[in-house]
Design goal:
five-stranded antiparallel beta sheet; 9 helices; 2 domains; six-stranded mixed beta sheet; 33% strand; OB fold (Dihydrolipoamide Acetyltransferase, E2P); Rossmann fold; alpha+beta; 20 strands; 380 residues
């Protein structure tokens, strides 16, 4: 059992109070004139992590990445990589490499020469360059394409060339700015798993900037959600999705239904909330730090809600409405239901059986319910 516990700490070093962060960002602020792009950010990232900075346009995530690379200097604060203060270290001397969204491949060079370019600039021995380039080509599965030029490759292949070129110099940290943004949806989904496999095989610490929630959920060991220059929540994909700490995070990560209400009963093991929007009492099986009568919000994910033509037992977490829109997505169907209160709710249900004749339909009266454990109380 002790051995298993050690494995757990290795896989989740952020839960180990004795683990040393590989990257420490301490009270970093970056201002451009009167505009604050990054506002007093502190963050620890551990060795071998694949960490995602997730946020909308203008939230400060790319600026933070550029400060790690040395392309921008913090107005205030310090950045450490492997216990070394990066403040006075130039970008080309930092133990990092960066992969840009545009890939920036040299069009006149072959794939192998693109990958070898940085090693040649560093005047590495020819035999060493040949070996490392060959190893990288094999890692990204591009050995048969070594003699091709970038214009002869698909978008996914060019992305892998850029990744190989960034990794061949063996950086301690690889920074990736929207690395899959130029790919179409299907190829992007396939490449996400390739990227994870390559990171696990090389053991390099990856920090990925993305605005794509599903991409961050697929790629990362942990996610830092950014808004207006600050990291508003850090956690594993499961923690961020299932236990958001605010309405912003709940709404930004996936789809969510949020009901406003006030606390009418609060015990250590549960809370009951009165909500005019929901049209029923809301019962959640965990307590909160708030006084009776406090204004709160309850978040329920669309896939946690059950639909039924028959009224479920009990009053808590059970409301009624009319189906006004249906979207058939193949693997699942999305229902938009207008509750009798006027609140519109989104419900998703998997299509487990093909061609059933008793599917819910437009304008049908329907009961909605969910388990007490499937809702989260939000204070802000």
């Amino acid at each position: 059992m002790a051995e298993a516990h050690e494995v757990d700490k290795r896989l989740d070093p952020w839960n180990d109070p004795h683990a040393t962060p590989y990257i420490r960002i301490q009270n970093v602020t970056k201002k451009f004139g009167d505009f604050t792009a990054v506002n007093n950010v502190s963050l620890d990232i551990y060795k071998n992590e694949l960490f995602c900075l997730l946020g909308g346009s203008g939230c400060g995530k790319s600026t933070l990445l550029r400060m790690l690379a040395g392309f921008e200097t913090p107005t205030v604060g310090t950045i450490y990589i492997d216990d070394v203060d990066m403040g006075s270290i130039a970008p080309y001397d930092r133990p990092v490499n960066m992969m840009f969204q545009s890939y920036a491949l040299f069009p006149h060079m072959t794939v192998e020469n693109n990958i070898a370019f940085g090693l040649k600039q560093d005047k590495e021995p020819a035999a060493e360059i040949t070996k490392r380039v060959a190893d990288m080509l094999e890692l990204v599965q591009l050995t048969p394409f070594a003699k091709r030029k970038p214009h002869q490759l698909s978008g996914g292949q060019r992305q892998r060339v850029a990744l190989a070129r960034a990794l061949v110099k063996k950086p301690k940290v690889l920074l990736l700015d929207e690395p899959l943004g130029a790919l179409d949806k299907k190829l992007r989904e396939e490449t996400q798993f390739e990227l994870v496999n390559i990171q696990e095989e090389t053991g390099v610490t990856f920090i990925v900037v993305t605005h794509d929630q599903s991409e961050a959920m697929t790629l990362s060991s942990r996610i830092g959600v950014m808004n207006e220059g600050q990291i508003v929540q850090t956690g594993t994909p499961t923690e961020i999705y299932e236990y958001p700490n605010s309405r912003f995070v709940a709404d930004f990560i996936g789809s969510v239904n949020i009901f406003e209400g006030r606390i009418i009963e609060d015990d250590p093991d549960h809370v009951r909330i009165e909500s005019d929007e929901a049209g029923c009492p809301l019962y959640i099986d965990h307590g909160v730090t708030a006084s009776p009568g406090a204004r709160v919000w309850v978040a329920v994910r669309p896939e946690k809600i059950q639909l039924s033509r028959d009224k479920p037992n009990g009053e808590d977490n059970c409301t009624i409405g009319t189906i006004e829109e249906i979207a058939y997505m193949g693997d699942l169907s999305i229902y938009r239901v207008e509750l009798d209160t006027g609140k519109r709710v989104r419900v998703t249900m998997p299509n487990l059986v093909r061609g059933t004749s008793d599917r819910y339909t437009w304008d049908e009266r329907i009961h909605l319910s969910w388990q007490a454990s499937n809702a989260v109380v939000l204070m802000t």
